[in-house]
Design a protein that fits this description.
Radius of gyration: 25 Å
Strand content: 15-25%
Largest sheet: 6 strands, mixed
Structural class: alpha/beta
Number of helices: 17
Length: about 500
Protein backbone atom coordinates (compact mmCIF):
# COMPACT_ATOMS: atom_id res chain seq x y z
CA UNK A 1 0.00 0.00 0.00
CA UNK A 2 1.15 3.54 -0.71
CA UNK A 3 2.30 5.77 2.13
CA UNK A 4 -0.60 7.42 3.93
CA UNK A 5 -3.28 5.03 2.68
CA UNK A 6 -5.25 3.43 5.52
CA UNK A 7 -7.74 1.32 3.58
CA UNK A 8 -8.26 0.15 0.02
CA UNK A 9 -11.27 -1.60 -1.50
CA UNK A 10 -10.54 -2.99 -4.95
CA UNK A 11 -12.94 -4.50 -7.48
CA UNK A 12 -15.75 -4.92 -4.96
CA UNK A 13 -18.81 -6.74 -6.35
CA UNK A 14 -22.03 -7.56 -4.53
CA UNK A 15 -24.93 -9.37 -6.18
CA UNK A 16 -28.48 -9.94 -5.03
CA UNK A 17 -31.05 -11.99 -6.96
CA UNK A 18 -31.53 -10.14 -10.25
CA UNK A 19 -29.53 -7.12 -9.07
CA UNK A 20 -25.87 -6.13 -9.44
CA UNK A 21 -25.68 -3.85 -6.41
CA UNK A 22 -21.94 -3.20 -6.77
CA UNK A 23 -19.81 -3.79 -9.86
CA UNK A 24 -16.01 -3.49 -9.57
CA UNK A 25 -16.10 -0.57 -7.12
CA UNK A 26 -12.86 0.90 -5.72
CA UNK A 27 -12.47 3.10 -2.64
CA UNK A 28 -9.28 4.51 -1.14
CA UNK A 29 -9.15 6.18 2.29
CA UNK A 30 -6.10 8.10 3.51
CA UNK A 31 -4.84 9.12 6.95
CA UNK A 32 -6.09 12.51 8.12
CA UNK A 33 -8.58 12.92 5.28
CA UNK A 34 -12.32 13.56 5.09
CA UNK A 35 -13.58 11.61 2.09
CA UNK A 36 -17.14 12.18 0.83
CA UNK A 37 -19.07 9.27 -0.67
CA UNK A 38 -21.69 10.64 -3.07
CA UNK A 39 -24.43 9.17 -5.23
CA UNK A 40 -28.17 9.23 -5.73
CA UNK A 41 -30.64 6.69 -4.36
CA UNK A 42 -29.66 3.21 -5.55
CA UNK A 43 -26.09 4.26 -6.39
CA UNK A 44 -24.63 1.62 -4.04
CA UNK A 45 -23.38 3.77 -1.13
CA UNK A 46 -25.17 1.83 1.60
CA UNK A 47 -24.21 -1.52 0.09
CA UNK A 48 -20.54 -0.52 -0.07
CA UNK A 49 -20.59 0.56 3.58
CA UNK A 50 -22.29 -2.69 4.60
CA UNK A 51 -19.60 -4.69 2.79
CA UNK A 52 -16.88 -2.66 4.49
CA UNK A 53 -18.45 -3.13 7.93
CA UNK A 54 -19.22 -6.85 7.56
CA UNK A 55 -23.00 -6.56 7.37
CA UNK A 56 -22.84 -7.98 3.82
CA UNK A 57 -20.24 -10.38 2.42
CA UNK A 58 -18.65 -9.25 -0.84
CA UNK A 59 -18.93 -11.61 -3.82
CA UNK A 60 -15.71 -10.42 -5.47
CA UNK A 61 -12.85 -8.03 -4.71
CA UNK A 62 -10.36 -7.32 -1.96
CA UNK A 63 -10.15 -5.15 1.16
CA UNK A 64 -6.66 -4.14 2.33
CA UNK A 65 -5.69 -2.37 5.54
CA UNK A 66 -2.50 -0.57 6.49
CA UNK A 67 -0.13 -2.73 8.51
CA UNK A 68 -1.79 -6.00 7.50
CA UNK A 69 -0.21 -8.00 4.66
CA UNK A 70 -2.59 -9.16 1.95
CA UNK A 71 -6.36 -8.89 1.89
CA UNK A 72 -8.42 -8.99 5.08
CA UNK A 73 -11.68 -10.83 5.67
CA UNK A 74 -14.46 -8.81 7.33
CA UNK A 75 -17.36 -11.15 8.07
CA UNK A 76 -19.18 -9.22 10.79
CA UNK A 77 -19.44 -5.74 12.32
CA UNK A 78 -17.30 -7.05 15.18
CA UNK A 79 -14.57 -8.02 12.68
CA UNK A 80 -14.70 -4.47 11.27
CA UNK A 81 -14.46 -2.98 14.74
CA UNK A 82 -11.50 -5.22 15.58
CA UNK A 83 -9.77 -3.93 12.44
CA UNK A 84 -10.30 -0.31 13.53
CA UNK A 85 -13.33 0.45 11.34
CA UNK A 86 -16.15 2.19 13.22
CA UNK A 87 -19.51 3.46 11.96
CA UNK A 88 -21.86 6.11 13.33
CA UNK A 89 -25.26 5.91 11.69
CA UNK A 90 -27.91 8.57 11.16
CA UNK A 91 -30.13 6.81 13.72
CA UNK A 92 -28.12 7.03 16.93
CA UNK A 93 -27.78 3.57 18.49
CA UNK A 94 -27.18 4.65 22.08
CA UNK A 95 -29.20 4.12 25.27
CA UNK A 96 -30.98 7.37 26.28
CA UNK A 97 -31.63 6.19 29.85
CA UNK A 98 -27.92 5.66 30.59
CA UNK A 99 -25.29 8.28 31.36
CA UNK A 100 -22.89 9.65 28.77
CA UNK A 101 -20.01 7.61 30.27
CA UNK A 102 -22.07 4.42 30.36
CA UNK A 103 -22.92 4.86 26.69
CA UNK A 104 -19.28 5.38 25.82
CA UNK A 105 -18.06 2.25 27.60
CA UNK A 106 -21.04 -0.12 27.68
CA UNK A 107 -20.16 -3.63 26.55
CA UNK A 108 -16.42 -2.92 26.53
CA UNK A 109 -14.61 -4.96 29.09
CA UNK A 110 -15.36 -7.69 31.52
CA UNK A 111 -15.45 -8.06 35.25
CA UNK A 112 -16.18 -5.41 37.85
CA UNK A 113 -16.76 -1.86 36.64
CA UNK A 114 -14.86 1.01 38.24
CA UNK A 115 -17.42 3.79 37.94
CA UNK A 116 -14.89 6.35 39.10
CA UNK A 117 -12.37 5.37 36.42
CA UNK A 118 -15.07 5.14 33.74
CA UNK A 119 -16.32 8.67 34.50
CA UNK A 120 -12.76 10.00 34.64
CA UNK A 121 -11.82 8.41 31.32
CA UNK A 122 -15.03 9.67 29.71
CA UNK A 123 -14.45 13.22 31.01
CA UNK A 124 -10.90 13.19 29.66
CA UNK A 125 -12.05 12.03 26.22
CA UNK A 126 -14.96 14.50 26.09
CA UNK A 127 -12.59 17.35 26.98
CA UNK A 128 -9.97 16.28 24.43
CA UNK A 129 -12.59 16.28 21.66
CA UNK A 130 -14.30 19.47 22.83
CA UNK A 131 -17.67 17.76 23.32
CA UNK A 132 -19.99 19.86 25.54
CA UNK A 133 -21.26 17.07 27.79
CA UNK A 134 -20.57 15.75 31.29
CA UNK A 135 -19.70 12.12 31.88
CA UNK A 136 -22.36 11.60 34.57
CA UNK A 137 -25.30 13.31 32.85
CA UNK A 138 -28.07 11.21 31.32
CA UNK A 139 -27.76 10.91 27.56
CA UNK A 140 -31.34 12.00 26.78
CA UNK A 141 -30.61 15.39 28.37
CA UNK A 142 -28.14 16.07 25.52
CA UNK A 143 -29.13 17.51 22.13
CA UNK A 144 -29.18 15.23 19.08
CA UNK A 145 -25.96 16.85 17.87
CA UNK A 146 -24.15 16.14 21.15
CA UNK A 147 -25.47 12.57 21.15
CA UNK A 148 -24.03 12.21 17.65
CA UNK A 149 -20.67 13.47 18.94
CA UNK A 150 -20.77 11.04 21.87
CA UNK A 151 -21.34 8.17 19.44
CA UNK A 152 -18.28 9.41 17.52
CA UNK A 153 -16.26 9.68 20.74
CA UNK A 154 -17.14 6.07 21.56
CA UNK A 155 -15.93 4.99 18.12
CA UNK A 156 -12.72 7.04 18.36
CA UNK A 157 -11.86 5.67 21.82
CA UNK A 158 -12.02 2.16 20.36
CA UNK A 159 -8.85 3.05 18.45
CA UNK A 160 -10.57 3.45 15.11
CA UNK A 161 -8.44 4.10 12.06
CA UNK A 162 -11.45 4.56 9.80
CA UNK A 163 -14.59 6.41 10.93
CA UNK A 164 -17.69 6.10 8.74
CA UNK A 165 -20.28 8.84 9.27
CA UNK A 166 -23.55 7.90 7.55
CA UNK A 167 -25.75 10.99 7.10
CA UNK A 168 -24.63 12.47 10.46
CA UNK A 169 -26.05 15.95 9.79
CA UNK A 170 -29.55 15.04 8.57
CA UNK A 171 -31.18 15.88 11.93
CA UNK A 172 -28.97 18.85 12.89
CA UNK A 173 -29.44 22.59 12.53
CA UNK A 174 -26.70 24.84 11.10
CA UNK A 175 -25.14 25.62 14.49
CA UNK A 176 -25.02 21.94 15.42
CA UNK A 177 -23.52 21.05 12.05
CA UNK A 178 -20.67 23.48 12.70
CA UNK A 179 -19.94 21.79 16.03
CA UNK A 180 -19.85 18.41 14.34
CA UNK A 181 -17.57 19.70 11.58
CA UNK A 182 -15.14 21.04 14.19
CA UNK A 183 -14.99 17.59 15.77
CA UNK A 184 -14.45 16.00 12.35
CA UNK A 185 -11.60 18.40 11.61
CA UNK A 186 -10.03 17.67 15.01
CA UNK A 187 -10.17 13.92 14.31
CA UNK A 188 -8.72 14.52 10.85
CA UNK A 189 -5.81 16.35 12.49
CA UNK A 190 -5.24 13.29 14.68
CA UNK A 191 -4.85 11.13 11.56
CA UNK A 192 -8.28 9.46 11.45
CA UNK A 193 -9.61 8.66 7.97
CA UNK A 194 -13.26 9.78 7.80
CA UNK A 195 -15.74 8.51 5.21
CA UNK A 196 -18.52 11.12 5.09
CA UNK A 197 -21.81 10.04 3.51
CA UNK A 198 -24.19 12.93 2.89
CA UNK A 199 -26.68 14.41 0.42
CA UNK A 200 -25.79 18.03 1.23
CA UNK A 201 -23.59 19.58 -1.48
CA UNK A 202 -22.69 22.65 0.57
CA UNK A 203 -21.39 20.46 3.39
CA UNK A 204 -19.32 18.33 1.03
CA UNK A 205 -17.46 21.37 -0.22
CA UNK A 206 -17.10 22.87 3.25
CA UNK A 207 -15.44 19.94 4.98
CA UNK A 208 -14.25 17.27 2.51
CA UNK A 209 -10.85 16.72 0.89
CA UNK A 210 -11.78 14.11 -1.70
CA UNK A 211 -14.98 12.77 -3.27
CA UNK A 212 -15.86 9.31 -4.59
CA UNK A 213 -18.97 9.19 -6.81
CA UNK A 214 -21.05 6.07 -7.38
CA UNK A 215 -23.89 5.64 -9.85
CA UNK A 216 -26.01 2.54 -10.46
CA UNK A 217 -23.64 0.36 -8.43
CA UNK A 218 -20.56 1.43 -10.37
CA UNK A 219 -17.62 3.73 -9.67
CA UNK A 220 -17.84 7.00 -11.59
CA UNK A 221 -14.55 8.27 -10.18
CA UNK A 222 -12.51 9.65 -7.29
CA UNK A 223 -11.68 13.37 -7.29
CA UNK A 224 -9.93 15.99 -5.21
CA UNK A 225 -12.57 18.51 -4.11
CA UNK A 226 -10.79 21.40 -5.82
CA UNK A 227 -10.81 19.46 -9.10
CA UNK A 228 -14.55 18.77 -9.12
CA UNK A 229 -16.78 21.87 -9.41
CA UNK A 230 -20.32 21.46 -8.11
CA UNK A 231 -21.90 21.39 -11.53
CA UNK A 232 -19.58 18.56 -12.56
CA UNK A 233 -20.44 16.65 -9.36
CA UNK A 234 -24.18 16.94 -10.02
CA UNK A 235 -23.62 15.82 -13.62
CA UNK A 236 -21.65 12.75 -12.53
CA UNK A 237 -24.21 11.79 -9.88
CA UNK A 238 -27.13 12.07 -12.32
CA UNK A 239 -25.28 10.63 -15.31
CA UNK A 240 -26.21 13.57 -17.55
CA UNK A 241 -23.89 15.38 -19.92
CA UNK A 242 -23.51 19.11 -19.35
CA UNK A 243 -24.08 19.93 -23.02
CA UNK A 244 -27.43 18.12 -23.14
CA UNK A 245 -29.57 21.15 -23.83
CA UNK A 246 -32.23 19.41 -25.89
CA UNK A 247 -35.82 20.10 -24.92
CA UNK A 248 -37.61 16.87 -24.14
CA UNK A 249 -41.14 18.25 -24.48
CA UNK A 250 -42.63 19.40 -27.74
CA UNK A 251 -42.97 23.20 -27.37
CA UNK A 252 -46.40 23.02 -29.01
CA UNK A 253 -47.60 20.67 -26.26
CA UNK A 254 -46.11 22.71 -23.43
CA UNK A 255 -48.56 24.02 -20.89
CA UNK A 256 -48.25 27.73 -20.37
CA UNK A 257 -46.32 28.49 -17.21
CA UNK A 258 -47.57 32.05 -17.00
CA UNK A 259 -49.02 33.14 -13.68
CA UNK A 260 -52.83 33.12 -13.58
CA UNK A 261 -54.87 35.74 -11.72
CA UNK A 262 -55.33 33.56 -8.67
CA UNK A 263 -53.56 30.29 -7.90
CA UNK A 264 -55.47 27.25 -6.77
CA UNK A 265 -53.18 26.90 -3.76
CA UNK A 266 -50.46 29.09 -2.34
CA UNK A 267 -48.19 28.63 0.69
CA UNK A 268 -45.97 31.25 2.26
CA UNK A 269 -43.03 30.64 4.59
CA UNK A 270 -44.18 27.09 5.31
CA UNK A 271 -41.82 24.94 7.38
CA UNK A 272 -42.14 21.76 9.41
CA UNK A 273 -40.51 19.44 11.90
CA UNK A 274 -38.72 17.75 8.95
CA UNK A 275 -36.17 20.58 8.93
CA UNK A 276 -36.92 22.30 5.62
CA UNK A 277 -36.26 26.03 5.48
CA UNK A 278 -39.37 28.26 5.18
CA UNK A 279 -40.52 28.17 1.54
CA UNK A 280 -43.09 29.80 -0.74
CA UNK A 281 -44.99 27.82 -3.35
CA UNK A 282 -48.06 28.07 -5.56
CA UNK A 283 -49.88 25.97 -8.13
CA UNK A 284 -52.42 27.17 -10.68
CA UNK A 285 -55.57 25.37 -11.76
CA UNK A 286 -54.80 22.80 -14.44
CA UNK A 287 -51.04 23.09 -13.93
CA UNK A 288 -48.46 20.31 -13.55
CA UNK A 289 -45.46 21.53 -11.60
CA UNK A 290 -42.83 19.78 -9.53
CA UNK A 291 -40.08 19.89 -6.95
CA UNK A 292 -36.68 18.74 -8.15
CA UNK A 293 -33.30 18.30 -6.53
CA UNK A 294 -30.95 15.57 -5.44
CA UNK A 295 -32.07 12.91 -2.99
CA UNK A 296 -32.27 14.49 0.47
CA UNK A 297 -32.71 18.01 -0.91
CA UNK A 298 -36.08 18.45 0.82
CA UNK A 299 -38.45 17.98 -2.13
CA UNK A 300 -40.54 15.30 -0.37
CA UNK A 301 -40.53 17.22 2.90
CA UNK A 302 -42.05 20.24 1.15
CA UNK A 303 -45.05 18.33 -0.15
CA UNK A 304 -45.46 16.47 3.14
CA UNK A 305 -45.72 19.87 4.86
CA UNK A 306 -48.35 21.03 2.34
CA UNK A 307 -50.36 17.85 2.94
CA UNK A 308 -50.01 17.93 6.74
CA UNK A 309 -48.10 14.63 6.85
CA UNK A 310 -45.35 16.34 8.91
CA UNK A 311 -46.14 18.75 11.73
CA UNK A 312 -46.06 22.31 10.41
CA UNK A 313 -44.20 24.85 12.57
CA UNK A 314 -45.21 28.00 10.73
CA UNK A 315 -46.43 29.57 7.51
CA UNK A 316 -49.78 30.08 5.79
CA UNK A 317 -51.79 28.09 3.26
CA UNK A 318 -54.33 29.76 0.96
CA UNK A 319 -56.72 27.88 -1.32
CA UNK A 320 -58.92 29.64 -3.88
CA UNK A 321 -58.07 32.92 -2.16
CA UNK A 322 -59.10 31.79 1.34
CA UNK A 323 -56.75 30.88 4.17
CA UNK A 324 -57.09 27.28 5.32
CA UNK A 325 -55.48 25.30 8.10
CA UNK A 326 -53.91 21.92 7.33
CA UNK A 327 -52.55 20.33 10.48
CA UNK A 328 -53.13 16.70 9.48
CA UNK A 329 -53.81 14.73 6.29
CA UNK A 330 -57.58 14.56 6.81
CA UNK A 331 -57.67 18.39 6.68
CA UNK A 332 -55.96 18.25 3.27
CA UNK A 333 -58.31 15.53 2.03
CA UNK A 334 -61.36 17.56 3.02
CA UNK A 335 -59.97 20.47 1.00
CA UNK A 336 -59.63 18.30 -2.11
CA UNK A 337 -55.90 17.58 -1.78
CA UNK A 338 -54.59 14.04 -2.27
CA UNK A 339 -51.08 12.65 -1.77
CA UNK A 340 -49.40 9.59 -3.26
CA UNK A 341 -46.38 8.99 -0.98
CA UNK A 342 -42.83 8.24 -2.05
CA UNK A 343 -42.71 4.78 -0.42
CA UNK A 344 -45.77 2.91 -1.66
CA UNK A 345 -44.99 -0.27 0.30
CA UNK A 346 -44.62 1.54 3.64
CA UNK A 347 -47.08 4.42 3.29
CA UNK A 348 -49.32 3.49 0.36
CA UNK A 349 -50.67 0.00 -0.04
CA UNK A 350 -52.26 -2.09 2.70
CA UNK A 351 -50.83 -5.40 1.55
CA UNK A 352 -53.30 -7.81 3.13
CA UNK A 353 -56.35 -5.94 1.84
CA UNK A 354 -57.86 -6.57 -1.58
CA UNK A 355 -57.54 -4.30 -4.60
CA UNK A 356 -61.14 -3.17 -4.00
CA UNK A 357 -60.53 -2.38 -0.33
CA UNK A 358 -57.39 -0.41 -1.18
CA UNK A 359 -59.20 1.61 -3.85
CA UNK A 360 -62.08 2.71 -1.59
CA UNK A 361 -59.88 3.33 1.48
CA UNK A 362 -59.44 7.12 1.22
CA UNK A 363 -63.07 7.77 0.34
CA UNK A 364 -64.16 5.55 3.24
CA UNK A 365 -61.93 7.55 5.61
CA UNK A 366 -63.58 10.77 4.45
CA UNK A 367 -67.04 9.26 4.83
CA UNK A 368 -66.27 7.65 8.19
CA UNK A 369 -65.76 3.99 9.05
CA UNK A 370 -69.09 3.86 10.87
CA UNK A 371 -70.81 4.49 7.52
CA UNK A 372 -69.33 1.74 5.34
CA UNK A 373 -70.00 1.43 1.64
CA UNK A 374 -72.16 -1.48 0.57
CA UNK A 375 -70.42 -4.32 -1.23
CA UNK A 376 -72.21 -3.33 -4.45
CA UNK A 377 -71.02 0.31 -4.17
CA UNK A 378 -67.45 -0.76 -3.41
CA UNK A 379 -67.37 -3.15 -6.36
CA UNK A 380 -68.80 -0.48 -8.67
CA UNK A 381 -66.05 1.98 -7.65
CA UNK A 382 -63.30 -0.64 -7.96
CA UNK A 383 -64.45 -1.98 -11.33
CA UNK A 384 -64.69 1.55 -12.75
CA UNK A 385 -61.09 2.42 -11.87
CA UNK A 386 -59.66 -1.01 -12.69
CA UNK A 387 -61.02 -0.44 -16.19
CA UNK A 388 -60.08 3.26 -16.36
CA UNK A 389 -56.45 2.70 -15.35
CA UNK A 390 -56.14 -0.74 -16.95
CA UNK A 391 -55.08 -2.35 -13.65
CA UNK A 392 -53.92 -5.91 -14.32
CA UNK A 393 -55.65 -8.06 -11.69
CA UNK A 394 -57.70 -11.24 -11.87
CA UNK A 395 -60.44 -9.58 -9.80
CA UNK A 396 -61.05 -6.78 -7.33
CA UNK A 397 -60.82 -9.41 -4.56
CA UNK A 398 -57.15 -10.09 -5.30
CA UNK A 399 -54.81 -9.06 -2.42
CA UNK A 400 -52.91 -6.00 -3.59
CA UNK A 401 -49.59 -7.44 -2.41
CA UNK A 402 -49.80 -10.03 -5.22
CA UNK A 403 -49.87 -7.34 -7.94
CA UNK A 404 -46.81 -5.99 -9.76
CA UNK A 405 -45.31 -2.72 -8.54
CA UNK A 406 -46.77 -0.79 -11.46
CA UNK A 407 -50.27 -2.12 -10.83
CA UNK A 408 -49.97 -1.41 -7.11
CA UNK A 409 -49.14 2.18 -8.02
CA UNK A 410 -52.19 2.37 -10.28
CA UNK A 411 -54.38 1.14 -7.40
CA UNK A 412 -53.11 3.95 -5.17
CA UNK A 413 -53.77 6.44 -7.96
CA UNK A 414 -57.27 5.02 -8.26
CA UNK A 415 -57.75 5.45 -4.51
CA UNK A 416 -57.09 9.18 -4.77
CA UNK A 417 -58.91 9.77 -8.06
CA UNK A 418 -62.01 8.24 -6.48
CA UNK A 419 -62.07 11.12 -3.97
CA UNK A 420 -62.29 13.56 -6.93
CA UNK A 421 -59.46 15.81 -5.73
CA UNK A 422 -58.76 19.24 -7.17
CA UNK A 423 -55.04 18.94 -6.38
CA UNK A 424 -52.92 15.76 -6.51
CA UNK A 425 -49.41 15.45 -5.08
CA UNK A 426 -47.57 12.54 -6.68
CA UNK A 427 -44.20 11.75 -5.05
CA UNK A 428 -42.16 9.30 -7.15
CA UNK A 429 -45.28 7.77 -8.78
CA UNK A 430 -43.22 5.86 -11.36
CA UNK A 431 -40.32 4.58 -9.22
CA UNK A 432 -39.62 0.88 -9.65
CA UNK A 433 -42.16 0.22 -12.39
CA UNK A 434 -41.74 -0.77 -16.03
CA UNK A 435 -41.28 1.79 -18.78
CA UNK A 436 -44.69 1.12 -20.34
CA UNK A 437 -46.54 1.83 -17.09
CA UNK A 438 -44.37 4.92 -16.53
CA UNK A 439 -45.53 6.37 -19.82
CA UNK A 440 -49.15 5.54 -18.97
CA UNK A 441 -48.90 7.41 -15.66
CA UNK A 442 -47.22 10.41 -17.32
CA UNK A 443 -50.01 10.57 -19.90
CA UNK A 444 -52.61 10.29 -17.15
CA UNK A 445 -51.04 13.22 -15.28
CA UNK A 446 -51.21 15.43 -18.38
CA UNK A 447 -54.80 14.28 -19.06
CA UNK A 448 -55.85 15.19 -15.50
CA UNK A 449 -54.31 18.64 -15.94
CA UNK A 450 -56.15 19.10 -19.22
CA UNK A 451 -59.37 18.33 -17.32
CA UNK A 452 -58.60 21.13 -14.85
CA UNK A 453 -56.96 19.28 -11.97
CA UNK A 454 -53.67 20.55 -10.55
CA UNK A 455 -50.77 18.15 -10.07
CA UNK A 456 -47.44 18.41 -8.28
CA UNK A 457 -45.15 15.71 -9.68
CA UNK A 458 -41.87 14.59 -8.09
CA UNK A 459 -39.42 12.20 -9.71
CA UNK A 460 -35.72 11.40 -9.34
CA UNK A 461 -35.58 11.19 -13.13
CA UNK A 462 -35.22 14.72 -14.50
CA UNK A 463 -36.12 13.55 -18.02
CA UNK A 464 -39.50 12.53 -16.65
CA UNK A 465 -39.96 15.87 -14.90
CA UNK A 466 -39.19 17.75 -18.10
CA UNK A 467 -41.68 15.63 -20.05
CA UNK A 468 -44.44 16.23 -17.51
CA UNK A 469 -44.04 19.60 -15.76
CA UNK A 470 -44.42 23.16 -17.00
CA UNK A 471 -42.65 24.63 -13.95
CA UNK A 472 -40.06 23.27 -11.52
CA UNK A 473 -39.12 24.42 -8.03
CA UNK A 474 -35.46 23.52 -7.45
CA UNK A 475 -34.29 22.35 -4.01
CA UNK A 476 -30.84 22.09 -2.48
CA UNK A 477 -29.92 21.29 1.12
CA UNK A 478 -33.54 21.61 2.36
CA UNK A 479 -34.21 25.01 0.86
CA UNK A 480 -35.68 26.39 -2.37
CA UNK A 481 -32.86 27.74 -4.53
CA UNK A 482 -34.65 28.51 -7.79
CA UNK A 483 -37.64 28.14 -10.08
CA UNK A 484 -37.57 27.27 -13.78
CA UNK A 485 -40.31 27.44 -16.41
CA UNK A 486 -40.82 27.74 -20.16
CA UNK A 487 -37.59 27.77 -22.16
CA UNK A 488 -35.56 27.71 -18.91
CA UNK A 489 -36.63 24.07 -18.40
CA UNK A 490 -33.54 22.21 -19.59
CA UNK A 491 -31.42 19.49 -18.05
CA UNK A 492 -28.47 21.84 -17.96
CA UNK A 493 -30.33 24.62 -16.14
CA UNK A 494 -31.67 22.20 -13.56
CA UNK A 495 -28.20 20.86 -12.80
CA UNK A 496 -26.72 24.36 -12.68
CA UNK A 497 -29.41 25.55 -10.25
CA UNK A 498 -28.95 22.49 -8.00
CA UNK A 499 -25.21 23.10 -8.01
CA UNK A 500 -25.62 26.74 -7.11
CA UNK A 501 -24.78 28.17 -10.50
CA UNK A 502 -21.09 27.39 -10.18
CA UNK A 503 -19.25 26.19 -13.25
Amino acid sequence: MQEGIVLEMRGICKFFPGVKALQNVDLTLREGEIHALMGENGAGKSTLIKVLTGVYQKDEGQIMLKGIPGAVSIRSPQDAQNQGISTVYQEISLCPNLTVAENMYIGRGRGAVSWKKMNADASKLLDSLGIPAKANQQLDSCSIAVQQMIAIARAVDMECKVLILDEPTSSLDEHEVEKLFKLMRDLKAKGVAILFVTHFLDQVYEVSDRITVLRDGQLVGEYAVQDLPRLQLVSKMLGKELDDLSSIKNPEDEISAGRKDEPLLEVQQLHSTAGIKPFDFYIDKGEVNGFTGLLGSGRSECVRAIYGADRVLGGTVTMNGKKIRISKPIDAMRNGISYLPEDRKRDGIVGDLSVRENIILALQVMKGFFRPFSRAQAEKFADEYIKLLDIKTSSSDTPIKSLSGGNQQKVILARWLLTNPVYLILDEPTRGIDIGTKVEIQKLVLKLAAEGKSVTFISSETDEMLRTCSRLVVMRDRKVVGELSGKELTQNNIMATIAGGEA
